[in-house]
Amino acid sequence: MDTRKGFHQSLEELQRDLLKMGVMVEEAIFLAVKSLAQLDETIARQVVAGDDKVNELMVEIESSCLRLLALQQPMASDLRVIGTAMKIVTDLERIGDHAVDIAKTTIRLQGEKLLKPLVDTPRMADMTKDMLRDALNSYVKKDLEIARSLAKKDDAVDALFKQIFLELEELMGADPANVHQAILLLMVCRMLERIADHATNIGEWVIYMITGVRQELNH
Amino acid sequence: MDTRKGFHQSLEELQRDLLKMGVMVEEAIFLAVKSLAQLDETIARQVVAGDDKVNELMVEIESSCLRLLALQQPMASDLRVIGTAMKIVTDLERIGDHAVDIAKTTIRLQGEKLLKPLVDTPRMADMTKDMLRDALNSYVKKDLEIARSLAKKDDAVDALFKQIFLELEELMGADPANVHQAILLLMVCRMLERIADHATNIGEWVIYMITGVRQELNH
Fold first, then answer.
1. Taking Cα atoms as reference points, which of A160, A137, A163, A164 lies closest to residue A148?
2. What are phi and psi of B93, to 5 degrees?
3. CA of A95: how far to CAs of A17, A23, B81, in Å?
4. What is the DSSP secondary structure assignment for residue A111, as one 8-state letter?
5. What is the chain A residue with the closest CA to B198?
6. What is the pLDDT of residues B35-71, one digit of tens each?
7. Residue A127 contacts residue A153 (beta carbons within 8 Å)
8. Residue A14 pLDDT more than 60?
9. Which part of the chain is the PhoU domain (chains A, B) (predicted)?
10. How many residue contacts between A and B have a Cβ separation below 8 Å?
11. Packed helices A179-211 and B144-174: angle between N→C axes, nearest 10 degrees
């Protein structure tokens, strides 16, 4: 009995750590896009520096997962909860990396002015942040509906990405001087679109965790 | 004794499956970039269709990993071998997705002519394929040297990416009519660069597997 109780406490700790990591990368996305919209190098460097903590937490969570798997011989459903945690942590880490890439774009653009005020990009960032929060909620609450809702939200992000893509393409066509910055801004949106994909991945893992069946949401 | 023997046989099977998956995505990269260089839609559709098999193998490998972890209570070093397999499989799946994205670019470009013959892009693809092969060899042979060599190769890929980036930027600046295709080609190279990152990730996992210490290679 004691061992099982210890096991479930450890599982809860694991989930708390995952949520903590989720909040960290959510904050990183927000700050990275804020730094870009304001071309604020200080905020950008804060995001870059913060990624070490995200990576440390990832290593910690992975170690906990392996320890739990090896020492506790969990049953099928718990096994999926832990396996899912190992997958989610990879998606979160990649999201953190994308936030760093966005922040680095801010640093590269120091000394320039933005081609136009960023409106849609922060909106896209908000959408991906919401998706990430939903994805983690679906994991903690084991909520199939929330997990499934991510596919639709991912479509909305993809549509916005396409729209921004066309606008930037137009800016490049209009003046060669715009090309360099427009490409960088395009890459930023591409990363936000990838972040939404990662959130959708997490949703797929949660569906697998609850149902035992793997299902692709975004194809 | 029988259980341990069964365990090691299962481990070997797991590694064989991982290598098989590696060969599949290596082939997918090769075919995707070939389809692009020749604007061959048939090859491109072959890559897109082949991704299902990659995903099926991923699910199979992950299930084997979880089964091995839960049923066999492996010791620390075996634990790392299995945990590493679970991570590598994610990188391989992502590489497969990138190959599909490249193939889809070929499909989008049907009816167009290439702005210029692709020379550096296939070269970049070859470099990333070699890195992937090295990464998987380092896993199977538990070879620290090969794993560590990936960082240097990743730098070479990054350098080539920067060069192609500048060339495409120039093409866009020279003629607005080039913008659309140049962006798509840029995205392709960005994906190849990401594939190299995934190979480097695998190298990091192998270093962890051998030494028990996590170490970032490409920062």
1. A137
2. -65, -40
3. 16, 11, 25
4. T
5. A94
6. 999 999 999 999 999 999 999 999 899 889 988 887 7
7. yes
8. yes
9. 18-105, 123-206
10. 69
11. 130
The string of pLDDT tens digits covering residues B93-149 is: 999 999 999 999 999 999 999 999 999 999 999 999 999 999 999 998 999 999 999
B73: left (phi over 0), alpha (psi -120 to 50) or beta: left
- Tokens 């080539």 belong to B160
The CATH number of residue A144's host domain is: 1.20.58.220
Chain A residues closer than 8 Å to B83 by CB: 62, 65-66, 86
Residue B219 lies inside a defined structural domain of this protein: no
* Residue A216 at interface with chain B, using a CB cutoff of 8 Å: yes
Q: What is the ipTM of this complex?
A: 0.81
Structurally, chain A folds into a number of domains equal to: 1
B115 part of a folded domain = yes
Q: How many residues does chain A have?
A: 219
Rounded CA separation B21/A217 (Å): 22
Q: Which residues of B touch A90 (CB under 8 A)?
A: 87, 90
In a domain, A217, yes or no: no
- Angle at which helices B144-174 and B120-141 cross, to 10°: 160
Would A218 be classed as within a structural domain? no
